Amino acid sequence: MDYTTLDRKILDAAARLRAEDLLKLSRKGFAVRFYDTLEDFYLAEALEYITAWRQATAKRPAGVCGPIRSHRAASVVARLVNELELNLKHCHFWGMDEWVVNGKEAG
Question: Does the predicted TM-score (pTM) go above 0.70?
Answer without folding.
Answer: no
